[in-house]
Design brief:
about 80 residues, mainly beta, 1 helix, elongated
């Protein structure tokens, strides 16, 4: 994995560590913590919240947890 690490406590703005896997990792903080990972399969993993202040287009699937899946089973117990 190639790593770009940013630290506000060092004398350099960022440090780049690379290899041949094709995965890109962005890290933050004095003790590097992974913030974003970009995989070779075009996947993006965030380690926090995502805030969008504009338009967003989704051309694939959006996975969201189903929090109402068993609601009627409890209310309609005779199901």
């Amino acid at each position: 994995m190639s790593t770009i690490s940013a630290s506000t406590t060092s004398t350099t703005a960022f440090k780049v560590t690379s290899d041949t896997t094709g995965t890109l990792v962005f890290q933050t903080g004095a003790t590097p913590t992974t913030a974003v990972t970009v995989g070779t399969d075009q996947s993006v993993t965030l380690a926090g919240n995502l805030t969008v202040t504009g338009s967003t287009t989704n051309t694939g699937y959006l996975n969201a947890p189903n929090t109402f899946g068993f609601k009627n089973r409890i209310i309609n117990g005779g199901m």
